[in-house]
Design goal:
The protein is 43% helix and 17% strand. It is α+β, with helices and mostly antiparallel strands. The strands form six sheets. The protein has a four-stranded antiparallel β-sheet, with helices on both faces. Strands 8-9-5-14 form a four-stranded antiparallel β-sheet. Strands 2-3 form a two-stranded antiparallel ribbon. The chain starts with a helix and ends with a strand.
Length: 442
């Protein structure tokens, strides 16, 4: 049997009494003291689950005979079990939260092994087929924790995939239902509309589509041909002095400043209003695609020419004025394809949601079973550390009546233990009991 100080180290710490108001169940265990288990059972029943002290409903809580191992192993395992208990509980809570979100506030009837969680707890029986009770405790805890971790990882992957599919659907719906700055233009523009639009896409010219807010209509139409006025170089050789070589192959080298005269890539007079809705207007504007900077010789070394692209920089110049250049190429067949794609995404989202709902209902039970088995191991380990060998203790489950948390706790301390100031932690913020106690709310 370990000393009183060692028992204090491995006892179950609890928050101050006010936090017990949220708890639904207590698991308590006391030593049989060499007597019959039935005597310990009646003692715990009289402590808080009898007509004189009707603070809870009490059930027998069967703890199987587990492999004890060494005292050092149990002490280490006791600390690890607290953390494992918290981890597995978190997994259970995640499944509950995911279910609540999927069922959108509707009633969810979770079950554990085909029965409600409350009945499973109150009729708990160790599952020896799933968790062989004669395996070493550390190995058994690892088996349970590993299974729970696998459930958590699968939940993480499923929810991530579902979230990605939802985002894809929302984006597709946004493109189909938004204004001209956001909507998929192939869904908005009809063949009749596009038939009146002159669209150019040649080696040097390209028609781009620009969406602007309705309030910017006059400003856009007045200034469109000056947007990007620093982009295009219109400079060239000065033929005014000597026009004799005009039109003939002449090497000017780097002496010509192509950008001495600059301007916008917008082709004058090319602006066309295409369509408008309640918020915005769509224009078609033809621009220069780019410009070639001629190569030249520096001595005997030829410096290759370069191609300058205007499309990206022109789009940036438009953004600076809150005009949106739409990445769009008209395709008469695309409208129906987009609608079909949205319908397919909706079908996929609905299917994934249904599958995830079924998964949560199934794996909630698996995670809950793991959680309860961890609690049983905690009761066993802490009882052995507190009461010593041979294993001789009785455990019960209290199902608290509403608002009776404090009264039951005081009654148990009075009937089952000898609580003193020495049982408080150094900081006085945690309390210890002269019996094993675990509290939880499923």
């Amino acid at each position: 049997t370990v000393t009183r100080q060692e028992r204090k180290c491995c006892a179950t710490p609890t928050k101050q009494v006010h936090s017990l108001l949220t708890m639904s169940y207590f698991i308590a265990a006391i030593s049989n003291g060499g007597g019959a288990p039935e005597q310990a059972y009646r003692k715990m029943q009289a402590a808080g689950a009898c007509p004189e002290k009707p603070f809870a409903e009490m059930f027998k809580f069967e703890v199987p005979s587990l492999t004890v191992g060494t005292l050092d192993t149990l002490m280490t395992l006791s600390d690890d079990l607290v953390k494992t208990d918290q981890v597995v509980e978190t997994i259970v809570r995640k499944i509950i939260a995911t279910s609540a979100e999927l069922f959108e506030g509707k009633r969810i009837d979770h079950s554990v092994g085909g029965v409600p969680p409350a009945r499973y707890i109150q009729q708990f029986a160790w599952d020896s087929a799933k968790y062989p009770n004669r395996r070493p405790l550390k190995e058994l805890v690892g088996l349970i924790a590993g299974g729970a971790a696998g459930i958590e990882e699968e939940l993480k992957q499923l929810t991530a995939s579902f979230a990605d599919k939802q985002i894809a659907l929302q984006e597709a719906q946004r493109r189909g239902a938004g204004n001209l700055m956001q909507a998929d233009l192939n869904d908005v523009l009809t063949e009749d509309i596009m038939r009146s639009v002159n669209v150019v896409d040649s080696e040097y010219l390209k028609t781009v589509f620009i969406a602007v807010g309705k309030s910017s209509k006059e400003n856009f139409e007045s200034n469109i041909e000056s947007i990007g006025s620093e982009l295009v170089g219109f400079g060239g050789p000065d033929w005014s002095r000597d026009g004799s070589k005009l039109g003939k192959p002449v090497s000017f080298g780097s002496s010509v400043d192509r950008h001495k005269v600059r301007g916008s890539p917008v082709v004058p007079g090319s602006t066309q209003m295409v369509h408008k809705d309640d918020d915005s207007i769509l224009y078609a504007v033809t621009i220069l695609k780019g410009q070639y900077e001629s190569g030249y010789y520096e001595g005997d070394q030829f410096q290759a020419g370069t191609k300058i692209d205007f499309e990206t920089e022109f789009a940036q110049s438009c953004r600076e004025k809150r005009y949106m250049v739409r990445d769009f190429k008209w395709d008469a067949t695309q409208a129906s394809k987009s609608a079909m794609a949205r319908e397919q995404l909706q079908v996929e989202v609905d299917g994934m949601k249904s599958a995830l709902m079924r998964w949560c209902k199934t794996h909630y039970g698996d995670a809950f079973v793991a959680w309860m088995h961890i609690k049983v191991i905690r009761v066993f380990v802490e009882s052995v550390l507190r009461y010593g060998l041979p294993v001789d203790f009785t455990a019960v489950l209290y199902k608290l009546h509403p608002g009776k948390d404090v009264e039951l706790m005081n009654a148990l301390d009075k009937a089952l233990g000898n609580a003193t100031d020495d049982d408080l932690g150094d900081d006085g913020e945690e309390e210890y009991h002269d019996f094993v106690l675990l509290k939880f709310e499923p």
